[in-house]
Amino acid sequence: MAVVVARIPWWAWAWPALAWAVLAAKTVAPAGGVLAGIAAAVLIATVFAAVYHAEVVAHRVGEPFGTLVLAIAVTVIEVALIVSVMVGGGPDKAGLARDTVFAAVMLVCNGIVGSCLLAGGVRHHEQGFQVQGASAALAVLAAMTTLTLVLPNFTVAAPGPAFSTSQLVFAGVVSLVLYGAFVFVQTVRHRDYFLAEGGEEEHAAPPSGRTALLSAALLLVSLVAVVGLAKALTPAVEAGIAAAGAPKAVVGIVIAALVLLPEALAALRAARGNRLQTSLNLALGSALASIGLTIPAVAALSILAGLPLSLGLDAKEEVLLALTLLVGVITLGTGRTTVLQGVVHLVVLAAFLFLAVVP
Hints:
Shape: globular
Helix content: over 70%
């Protein structure tokens, strides 16, 4: 993890405080392009504060537990944001959860992983990691994405790319079981599969318990402020996307990009520091958490509140998902990576983003 100082820097608490102030101001006076611009800038700054606090907590608890901190935290925020938008959006938001989860998988597996491999390869030429851990994560990811995002297109109990109530319950339970099994293997049964070769790396003395607790509290405050600002900015984002003539699925990409930004920055920093194992733990763990926690939450909301929920991907997205999983298996199947793998993943990401705007 990054070097942790005994005293928390001023900006690590000032930005979250300012975010709450801006959020309060938008509640009183929601209109205005200037305020929206300020809110966007403060949101990004608060994300950096969240990254700092997450690294403090992660450094305190050690690997691989530390990489779970940010993954689970931002996924909870992602769920809260999706649920809040779905409740206020009605039938038009039936595919928001699918679009956001799929975007999260593509951004993580191609964007974050590709950027880490490229940045690490440029700086260190070749980097190594534990194949067993990466293979386990990819196996769970392939099962999760297929069962929740592809299978709805082939069931007949409900019309369209959707599950029936009993099928939604099954999909939610299966997602929780798979994610729970992965976390158990990562943290208990085969913990060594997710540690850097040679054991845990120590780059500085871990912070005190008091500092870690304070950072944990500020991390929660920061992430809640991020989701509040993101939700407040969602109407402006939707209006801009509609004005540009882009498909509604782009909204899901924007939401996923916002909630994944803290993990992306932390993973990229670890890769540049020659800690690719930590980067992969963060990236793949966040993709699994995104599905394993989001699908059960939105499935429960759909059943209890009677909200429509479309989960099946279209044919183009299924091809991109299959390509992503195939490239991921090949890339992470040797235990060594170079800049070439990073370029391949980023090209697949570029194709996803381009075809999302120009379907």
